[in-house]
Amino acid sequence: MAGNTGIDAMWDAKAFLEEDLSKKTPVIRTGAEIPFTRYFYKYQQPTPSEEPESQFMKLERSVSERVARLFEKD
Known about the structure:
Elements: H1 6-23, H2 36-40, H3 50-70
């Protein structure tokens, strides 16, 4: 380990990087990326909170009535 100095290690790193980079080939992309949200997304105004609340309350009443009928004693 006495023969390894900082200069030797730096030279090995440079040689490794040069060798590694010379073996790399450029990436060829085929096709295209389509940003779907840009072309196909259409903004929709959110519904006012009163509308879903009224639907929820209507369903809640319906369920309560059905459960009451289910457990109703004759």
